[in-house]
Amino acid sequence: MSKVRVRFAPSPTGFFHIGSARTALFNWLYARHTGGTFVLRIEDTDKERNTDEALRVLLDGMKWMGMDWDEGPDVGGPYGPYFQSQRQAIYDEYLKKLQDAGRTYEKDGAIWFKLEGERYTAYDDYLKAEIEKVKAAPVIIDDAVRGRVERAEEKDFVLVRKDGSPVFHFVNVVDDIAMGITHVIRGEDHLSNTSKHVELFKAFGVEPPKFAHIPLILKEEGSGKMSKRDKGALIEEYESRGFLASAVRNYISLLGWNPKDEREKMDIDEIIELFDFPGINKGNSRFDEKKLSALNAEYLRELNIESFTFLARPLLNEAGAVSEDVDEDYLQAVLTLCQPKARSLDTLAELCGYFFLDDYAMDEKTGVKIAKKADPKELLAEVLPILEALEPFDADSLKSALEAQAEAQGKKVFAYFPALRYATSGQAGGPDLLPMLAVMGRERVVTRIKRFIG
Ligand code: GLU
User: Fold this and answer.
1) Is-contact 170 200, C-beta < 8 A?
2) Per-residue confidence (pLDDT) for residue 266, from 0 to 100
3) 219 included as an active-site residue
4) To test ligand 1's pocket by mutation, which of 26, 179, 186 has the most ligand atoms within 8 angstroms of CB?
5) Using CA of residue 325, residue 330, residue 332, residue 335, what is the dihedral sign?
6) With b meaning 16 or more CB within 10 Å and e meaning fewer, what string describes 301-322?
7) pLDDT confidence of residue 9
8) Which of 14, 45, 290, 380 has the lowest CB atom count within 10 Å?
9) Aminoacyl-tRNA synthetase class I anticodon-binding domain spans which residues (predicted)?
10) SS3 of 24, please?
11) Could you give all domains of the chain from N- to C-terminal order, each with its CATH number?
């Protein structure tokens, strides 16, 4: 078999939708799996919508997800240009081939593609008029995902509009031929176009590529297809919400594909190795934010603390939890405690903001609950002098000093813990208490306890 050449052929819209990202990813994975070539072709024939900004969103999204292309914008390649808006000469040349073969005609100023078959006049329900139809032999598509699909075109269709602009079906097929594309992996919404495309391939005397139409991504609730307004639909938002690209990529690879075992978290190398058409689901897949978050949390826990801090810092800054000049060592020490608890970076400020902000919120329910057992102010007044004098102020010393105090008072050391945590953080839970106090440091802890006691 000739070397695999696949392409991702987006029309830039200003958004990088999760459905497009999935199509791009499946093409990229297939290219990497087979050692083939991944082409990025920009279908920018709609001049109004195709701005530089729209292109940038797309290319940035691809780069963020780590999908590098072997041919296309920025990198070039032997089959360029890779923007349809720059390929008019190629379309003219291919149109001429069809004209020379007698497969076109002009009607109402447009250039039409002439199907082969017996012609007859029939009433068209949609147009509410008599029109010419064609009994063309059905086109058979041996789709790598859907299996055998049979469909007969019965009307000629336009190739070049009145204003001289070529239509999608024509340029899409011409480019797939001119660029030597061997496999077309795209959304199921294009399955209904495929018989037109196959008719064009046949008219050019070219064997059509292998098609693989991938099912829809449904929104989290309901039966509809995910639209750009649904939460989680836009790749650019994952980046600003602090999701890890590796987690998003892993998650999207599982939207419509699975390695036929229970595995979910997989290295990209593993996915590349296992990815193939038989693993693509026939049924639609459903977006599941919880599953994505769980995967993201797993990836977050694996980061080394330097990378974690690097990613967390701007989000904490944006949320107002840390200032630009936050003490680097303190930030890293806090994040070392919080990383194992973090589910996402955008909720990190809620999780650990109190380490940095002195006006942290006091959770009322927790306050009521701990006051039921014993007066927290009394407990804290008891240990305050010990904390003020403790040297060094670390987890081990805290442990022995508090234990000694508890023993002297005939208490268990844990008796002090809820009050200590609540006074210093306003919360019921968090990282292990003694390391947490040690990281906060004596001054912060003492000041907070004094303020709590009042
Ligand atoms: N520009 C088309 C789209 O964005 C490409 C379809 C195809 O992959 O053939 O849907």
Assistant:
1) yes
2) 95
3) no
4) 186
5) negative
6) eebeeeebbebbbebbeeeebb
7) 98
8) 290
9) 311-453
10) helix
11) 1-302 (3.40.50.620), 303-355 (1.10.8), 364-453 (1.10.10.350)
In 30-94, the DSSP E strands lie at 37-40
Which spans in 339-441 are helix H? 348-352, 364-373, 376-389, 395-408, 417-425, 433-440
List the catalytic residue out of 96, 228, 231, 282: 228
Residues with Cβ within 8 Å of 118's Cβ and at least 6 positions away in sequence, in order, are 134, 135
**Other Cβ atoms closer than 10 A to 29:** 24
* 28 contacts 38 by C-beta, under 8 angstroms: yes
User: Which segments of the chain have a pLDDT < 50?
Assistant: none
Place of tokens 């003219």: 92
Q: CB within 8 A of 411, min separation 6: which ones?
A: none
Convert 212-275 into a string of H (helix), E (strand) and C (coil): EEECCEECCCCCCECCCCCCCCEHHHHHHCCCCHHHHHHHHHCCCECCCCCCCCCCHHHHHHHC
Q: What gap in Å lies between CA 31 and CA 39, rounded to an integer?
A: 9
Tell me what pLDDT residue 292 has: 93
Determine whether 138 is exposed, middle or buried from the number of CB atoms within 10 Å of its CB (0-12, 13-18, 19+): exposed
**Mutation to probe ligand 1, out of 38, 40, 42, 43 (largest number of atoms < 8 A from CB):** 43
End-to-end CA distance of the chain: 80
Q: Is 24 in the pocket of ligand 1 (CB under 6 A)?
A: no
Residue 412 in marked binding region: no
Decide: helix, strand or coil at residue 39.
strand
Cis amide bond preceding 392, omega within 30:
yes
Query: What pLDDT score was predicted for residue 127?
Result: 85
104, 95 Cβ separation under 8 angstroms: yes
pLDDT at 240: 83
